[in-house]
Design goal:
Blueprint (H helix, E strand, L loop, with lengths): L5 E8 L6 H17 L3 E9 L10 E12 L3 H12 L4 E7 L2 E7 L2 H4 L1 H12 L7
Antiparallel strand pairs: 1-3, 1-4, 2-3, 4-5
Amino acid sequence: MTNETTIQFTFGLDNLELEDDERQKFAQRLLPELRSLDEVIRADRAENLDPEAGSKGFATLVGLLQAEVGFKSIKAFVGFLGDRLADKPVKVKVKVGDKEAEIEAKSRQELAELEKIALNLIAAMGGGSGV
């Protein structure tokens, strides 16, 4: 097992005109592609880790996916997202360790900012191991 720094991306379509089932179908189509990518260490549907009081277990968030990516694979992963989500409004949370940032993108160019954000988070943590 390597000590490589990993980045967690949580993302989904951010279009208020889409119904929940449309977002969910999009996520279901994209998930197998994510899981087959060499750059992705782990991919799954995003879960609400802070459920409402009284609920049991975790709730899956509609239409949101999570992917864990190695530091060296950021550029390729962001390119994949750009290809699949280009010109669709999307909301992405980037998390490295306990640091995180959120970005709303409506174009491939705005999605390209994810790489810079992830690198800045790694730098804020003091560099990260295995880099």
